[in-house]
User: Fold these one by one.
Assistant:
Number 1:
Amino acid sequence: MVLSKNCASLLGRYFRNTLIPKTLSASYTSSQVHADVKLEWTQNLNFTGSSSLLIPSYRVLNQQGQIIKESEDPKLSDSVLEKMYKNMTLLNVIDKILYESQRQGRISFYMTNFGEEATHIGSAAALNEDDVVFGQYRETGVLLWRGFTLSELMDQCYGNCDDQGKGRQMPVHYGSKRLNFVTISSPLATQLPQAAGAAYALKGKNKIVICYFGEGAASEGDAHAAFNFAATLGCPVIFFCRNNGYAISTPSKEQYKGDGIAGRGPGYGINTLRVDGNDIFAVYNATKMAKEYAITENKPVLIEALTYRVGHHSTSDDSTKYRSVEEVQHWTATENPVNRLRLYLENKDLWNEDMEKQWHTESRKDILTAFDAAEKKSKPHWSELFNDVYQEIPDHIRKQMEEMQQHIEQYKDQYPIKAYSP
């Protein structure tokens, strides 16, 4: 093959400029950038271990309810502080009543939030109404703060005719379009890549997405994919990890190695915070800072909140099989987030025992009223099984619906028809 003069000239310049080694100029330094990674060359071969970067845990309020460093006090109004405490204690009473109702066979399933109240309320208080929330399944307090009513909550747990999900979901799988809270999915970590995508769509709109998950979900591949998507695409999302010590029965020490979940953030190029998840002020400050950064920079933030799951994983779990009663009692006595905030309020003369008794009586009455009303409501009509998937029901689905109608009419004496909406 004979090359033209122009082609030969181009090839000659290419090889001279790219393939032939050159003598390094005097301006060459040991610092370079490769694939957008800053490099420092070294002639010493050493392992970089898990202890090379240990991320500290941020705390504002100590166990005695005292501000450790005055400059870190969020300076919240008295009304906000009272709302925080009332929401936390309201959540406690809800958990007690619904957990017991499941044991009585009145609802099919439940998951309590004991020990993690500060992660819910502290983070939710730092958000705006138009921010979008992706939950896992233990974020009931976030919904309460945003305005989810007791009736809405009870209707969902009963799956009755007023349930926004029309009885299709398990209890505690809440969702609210009105509150920008995306419906919960049972499979772990599915919400993480969805949150990254939603945040990508919200870029430049002065709002963010927050995505809650546990340290167990962080072991799923979807979590790693979401971190990488969000970092490389510049998504304004807060990945909020509730590290409560257990992924059902698997303790954190068996779930991962290295510096926890927070240690993964820098590896993905994500700014990261670790906070005391039992300190509602630390959670609030961290979420507020993360939100401001995500909006300003159009970049993700990872928050790891260190907390403890006091209750069983769910009503299908018996945690006494894998942890001691003494362990739970220790955490309840020393790191209770509700007690910590109450001590703070009492120190500022914003709360007392009389107020506590009055609020407990009022809240319990309101909860039981909503509970009784939800229990008496009928179930959604069976035809709802076929709705809300397609804009127009296709022929093969319509045929199934007609067959079911015929079946129910033929065997109506065998079904509790009166329990369902007409």
Note: The chain has two domains: 70-376, 382-419.
Number 2:
Amino acid sequence: MTTSPTTVAAGVAPQRWQAPLDDAMTDTLVERLMRVAPFNQMDETAFPASIPLRGLLKNDTRIRRRAAGEVLMREGDYGDTAFLLLDGQARVTLESLTAAELGLAETPRRAGLGSAIRRTLATVLGPAKPPEVRDRIDARAADQRSVFVQDVSAVLDSKRTALLSPGEVFGELAVLTRAPRTATVFAEGSVVALEIRWQGLRDLMRFTPAWRAHIDRLYRDNSLRVHLRATPLFTSLDEQALERVASAIEFATFGSFDWRDLPPDPTAVDPLDRVRREAQVVKQDDPIEYLLLVRSGFARVSVAQGEGQRTIAYHGKGSVLGAEALLSADNASARWPVSIHAVGYLDVLRLPTDVFLAEVGTTSDKVPVADSELPARTLDYLVDRRLINGVEAMVIDLDRCTRCDDCVRACAATHDGNPRFIRQGPTHDHFQFAHACMHCVDPVCMIGCPTGAIHRDPATGVVRVNDATCVGCSVCANACPYNNIQMVEVRAPEGAIVFDQVTGQPLLRAAKCDLCSDQPTGPACQHACPHDALVRIDLSSPHSLASLVSR
């Protein structure tokens, strides 16, 4: 069964569940789900009247049927849904599959140059059109085409896989961390799975403590195996040694998962208070009892300076902290030469030093040594404003910029007359960090969206807004710590502002930079700059900005 697109001209804003994940999820299917675990063990009275359990299953889930070899989720993709296997068996890969094994092209293709030029010329040379025109909005994004493992038998023979049976949950790691999928899962035979979008998973965890404990346990276990396999420190360990390391690991989190407490003006806050407000992970001069492996989030590394702290580095996912100090000192008396604080949110693995020394040894060439090329004041600036979260930050060199606004005009021409960024923003030295979506490592804008309208594009990782399910609630815009999402008034083709028939207020939609993902030249703003003043860079690594500073 299909649903006709939502007509914007009618002025009715979609509400939660007005655009269900799948129209085919009937009351009959919901009743059948209520008779199987874990739903038959949930207390329906624990759910509020506004979000009943049956309503959640009907609107936030869908049944997925897959044939042998068909992929349910693919490593490297971004996803905001988890899966519960209902029937049949699936395989999760413990080794990466090649694009050829998945029957895919090596790289995703952008739109053709010809179509992009025609679109831009139509905008520039054609008759003026009002901005933010919507004649209609599809009820939901089109489903992705199916992907198949090309030779299931060959993959099972040549790759390490693990068996998934009915009742098992997978895909929760990407949902909880807003990170790429860490493994590929495909059907070994015919399977039936329940797909749960992240808002539904969030509410199931919120109102069912046992389900939350179960998901948390899966997250910890699956994340641990994935993280250890990806850490160079442990690549030479055999399975038995890796198991001993895994058994000794302790999990710890610091800060808030849905952090968004960035002060409007960090310079107005006392530097001592800025660090004190951050959750302390390690105190300088304390004995090194554990090595720290960063799973997600960011860590500020600082040293004492007078009564305060001087930032010397920041670290993100994959970093190993403490190994260098441990190996360069007498093991019995090794102490932390730095303090470590959580920047917003930090999720770490703690490995006891005696286990590290016994299993990994004292070979220091296994330990990555991180050294920042930026001065402390620049590091403080980036960390205090959480700019280190940006993967595609827009940075403008004001010494090169002539304020010609070619970047703004190019953006407007690419987006039907309305630019998706503001050429203003915090400035450090001669670099301005403009108000443009940074497509963050940890996009907290996605946390509160009631419908999942703001999401990562599965192919590119670009954070996008789906007009079909955006209800104009402004949650994402308010949640963005950087003010990089704008709420715009929707207009009909003739230019009139569209009003919500229920509230009488103008109909709003979230608008933000989409990195010109349909343009063959990439971001139009950067491509149009005649002086090479505007660049998009990854601030999650200090080396990117260091390279820009030194050019």
Note: Residues 1-14, 137-144 have pLDDT under 50 and may be disordered.
